[in-house]
Amino acid sequence: MKCDKCGVQKLSREFPPWPLVESCDHAILHCLRCVTAHAEQHEQCSQCENKVSKTSSRLKQCYCQLKALFPEYEPTFVPQTTAMASGERGYVSMAMLNGDSTSVELNPSMTVSRLREIVRQNLKVPLENQQLIYNGKEMKEVTDSHAQATLAFYQVAPKTTIHVRRLLYSVPSGLDKVVFDLYWGYPASGQDYLDASVLIFQGGHFLGVLDYRNREQSAMRHSGDLMDNYARKGHHLINVNLHSIPSSITHLFFTLSAWASPTVSKYPNPSLRFYEESNPGKMLCEDTIKKLNYSQAIVMGWLARQGGNWCVFSAGKPSAGNAMDYSCLVSTIQGIITNGL
What we know:
InterPro entries: Stress/Tellurium_Resist, TerD, Ubiquitin-like_dom, Ubiquitin-like_domsf. By secondary structure, this protein is α+β, with helices and mostly antiparallel strands.
């Protein structure tokens, strides 16, 4: 997840678990370092003008969380780094859209195959589901000349990020009528709603939305609210006729957002299931957000054409915005597309 203030990709645990002030009603988009530094200098929340006392218990907890994440100590061992041709040394990060990341010492001779194995071990993404993207280009294991591709081949520089795209399902050409089931658990008390919306894109250009108000678009249909009070789950079903999607549409992004709540954190296990309309008992793929976050919305995943087939990808990307105003969600999604994902 990228901090909106410093612009650096960080782990989800590097963000405060709650607003600094109880009356703050915005999603948490600034990291712990930015939040505490701003409060020290201005005695204000970094995202709004709410006053923050330097003796605030929440601010103190932020300091404790920072200290736990980044303890100060003198290193007894300095790793040997491999120099690049330019003389630079350093590490490269591998990051997923859900905020999970890992890093590796930058070695120009490291193969893409080895890098994929590190992603499998550290980020728990199976090899068959990985797609590594650097500077908008997918990193293949073998070059056009049938040699082992390396980091040097892709000109990977230190202090940069390789994006890890997780493929959930490659749709066979014979599959047409499918269903995306976006669902969530009820809050601990009462019945409340998340809104499932499909944001439609042509490249990076936003074309429109399918949601509870706009329930029919080209080759798509939105079910509206389907509330299961017995199982305490809410569902929105998105029916899609893949063969009828206009060629101008390149991406369908599936999102869940909170309407009345400032965050989605009180709704357990926001999930996406994908199945053939004629066989709802057989899941083609499933994805669940296991780490509840404090954003207003989640980009759950997307459908895009790749190599002539439609493919379903996982995201789990936090974002501001909801069904009242999609502009922040559109901006988040355009960032995903710009990075070549």
